[in-house]
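Let us work through a complete example step by step.
Step 1: write down the sequence.
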Amino acid sequence: MHIPIVSGFQSLDAPPRRFLVYVAINVVSWQNIVGPAMILLARKIDMPESLVGLMLSFMPFTSLLLLFMLPMIVRLGPKRVMMWAWFLRNVIACIVFLMPLALATNSKPLAWAVLMVAILGFCIMRAIGAGGWLPWLHEIVPVRARAVYFSTETSITQLINVAILFVQARLLAVEEPGINRFLLIFGIGIFMGFVSLFWMRRIPGGEGASEVDAHIGFRAYVRAATDRQFLVFLLISTFSLSGMVWFGASYIMYLRDNLGLMDSLTMTLTAAGSLGILMTVGAWARFTDANGSGLAMAKTLLGHSCAPVLLIITGLGVPGTPVFM
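Step 2: predict the structure and record it as tokens.
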């Protein structure tokens, strides 16, 4: 009997396997730098909710930089762009280690600024490099293997998420976790970010083009803007993603500040959510094959819509409702 993750990994050629290893390491870095622990750290240093929301907006708003990166990615190649961007995002993230010095001045706004600058710089460099991800991936993964690759990637990502979040829960499993514990989480993320560069170098392909059309970006966007089916899909995706982002941005603070949960329990619940995804990804894949991706996404979004309602009911103090968490 084969384990789906293992059998999927073994069925791929060497280049996609290397990309999967890189993805696995990158997930560790991502979750430790801009995962739920980042929000808990922000609240630990008494950053106002409005500024936490602003910080969380850095990721989607900096993603707009992708609109201007296409010519550079084509000219230099996805590999070179991603290597430099990923290196600089890790270097910039090191700014967070100035936080103890900022707190030593008894200036909380200075500590808030340190965290926000580190996250903003991380997000900007991530946006600059992220445009090379899919072009490079599609170059090295043949069409016949993409279904296996993406299902394996999803499973590996969720498995690692579960492991990371449970480890973070243990690191924060004290009544009042100190700043050093949060900085340790950041340090692990930054270290793994540098390790991911080693694996990125081992992935073939991703070279730039010798000749580049100066108007390649403009023409590509014009084609997309005149594709009616794509625009409808984009609109639906935008509203769907918006709903998920609103929930993802608020539930950590809701659990901590409104329901009074310890940081370790908040991380444990988040890990349990990732575990749920991991355990059901196979069933959702079979459902999608039988009924189509449209119905699968509609049912998934219905579940995401119910989750905030259940959390609100939990906060009303009705006996027995904490089970909804």
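Step 3: interpret the result. The chain has a mean pLDDT of 86.
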